[in-house]
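User: Please fill in residues for this 378-position structure.
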């Protein structure tokens, strides 16, 4: 019996399970080994796994060894085996998640496999010619495989048989990934399941004033912070205002502290109060902005200071946090060595016994020498 692309699409429909334990697989092409490592750490943490990934992500996440012509420092492959949600729902989650900025491509796969490029050619050649209105886009890893499929398989064989490809006006996607020397996994999926990564190089979050906004967006998501009605936040070292702008979306009042000027879009926000002083010299102004006898829900800081110096700057404000209030700090270390080791214990000591649930996270938005600290007030 000759397989048809329509049958393959129907059998792998996004709302139907493709295995007994999941909704098929997805291979994510990650921008670097460090980012891939951080994504795996998120999925290995049971609490974060269900907070960050839809349905808990997948049964397993496997870091695939690469068999390709791409330099080893780039483009890592993570196999999400047996997705917990449908492939179209996983794709929708990717488009809204902070992790989308770490992902180059997503390949949605089911059970189709070839042992080599020649075997892939043979399998595709034996399939029934699809309807004339079906136009295919090829999305494959590595690029050499993609070019082989386009030039040799389609160009030399399938186009003459009635298949057609188009990079823009396509209705179906042919995914293919070279997973090992003897395994090329491939699938035919609806055009709607193609994930297009943000690649304009501008702000990580649409409409935000700077890329640093994405760091706080990720930290809020990972930490599980939930804003409440009437919530108040303080942003120390706020300029140019990226973090302040993120906070203003969910907090009733945001006090931005920085002698430097804020971006005009941030200054225009009606729930933002800008204090153009160093925080150490602005106690009265901060109390006036927050409200006498009021407490704050969230204290954030992303200044370019050593962690110990940062805590010293923030200590006068820690007493203003309500019980259950949270701090989120970017820790910027000098050098790559042992200084980051033991960071949690050092931070606990600096904060004192009034804080708990102290964590130091390596966000995908952090640089190699940055970590993000979160803690709650008892």
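Assistant: Residues filled in for all 378 positions:
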């Amino acid at each position: 019996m000759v397989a048809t692309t329509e049958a393959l699409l129907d059998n792998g429909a996004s709302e139907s399970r493709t295995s007994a334990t999941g909704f098929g697989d997805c291979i994510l092409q990650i921008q670097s080994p460090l980012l891939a490592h951080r994504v795996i750490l998120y999925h290995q943490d049971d609490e974060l796994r269900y907070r960050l990934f839809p349905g808990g992500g997948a049964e397993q996440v496997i870091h695939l060894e690469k068999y390709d012509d791409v330099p080893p420092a780039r483009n890592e492959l993570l196999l999400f085996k047996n997705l917990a949600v449908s492939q179209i729902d996983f794709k929708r989650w990717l488009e809204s998640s902070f992790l989308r900025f770490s992902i180059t491509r997503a390949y949605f796969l089911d059970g189709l496999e070839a042992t080599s490029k020649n075997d892939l050619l043979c399998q595709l050649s034996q399939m029934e010619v699809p309807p004339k209105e079906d136009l295919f886009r090829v999305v494959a890893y590595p690029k050499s495989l993609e070019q082989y499929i386009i030039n040799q398989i389609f160009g030399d064989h399938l186009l003459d048989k009635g298949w057609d490809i188009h990079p823009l006006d396509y209705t179906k996607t042919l995914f293919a990934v070279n997973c090992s020397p003897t395994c090329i996994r491939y699938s035919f999926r609806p055009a709607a399941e193609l994930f297009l990564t943000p690649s304009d190089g501008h702000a990580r979050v649409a409409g935000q004033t700077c890329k640093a906004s994405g760091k706080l967006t990720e930290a809020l998501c990972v930490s599980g912070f939930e804003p409440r009605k009437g919530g108040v936040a303080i942003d120390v070292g706020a300029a140019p205002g990226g973090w302040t702008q993120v906070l203003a979306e969910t907090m009733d009042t945001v006090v931005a502290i920085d002698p430097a000027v804020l971006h005009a879009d941030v200054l225009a926000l009606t729930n933002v109060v800008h204090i153009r002083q160093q925080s150490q010299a602005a106690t009265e102004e901060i109390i006036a902005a927050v409200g006498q006898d009021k407490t704050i829900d969230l204290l954030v800081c992303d200044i370019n200071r050593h962690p110990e110096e940062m805590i010293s700057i923030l200590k006068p404000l820690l007493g203003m946090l309500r019980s259950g209030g949270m701090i989120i700090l970017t820790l910027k270390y000098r050098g790559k060595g042992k200084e980051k080791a033991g960071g949690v214990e050092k931070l606990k000591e600096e904060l004192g016994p009034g804080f708990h649930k102290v964590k130091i996270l390596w966000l995908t938005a952090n640089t190699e020498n940055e970590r993000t600290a979160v803690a709650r007030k008892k």
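For context: Confidence is low (pLDDT under 50) at residues 7-20, 199-203.
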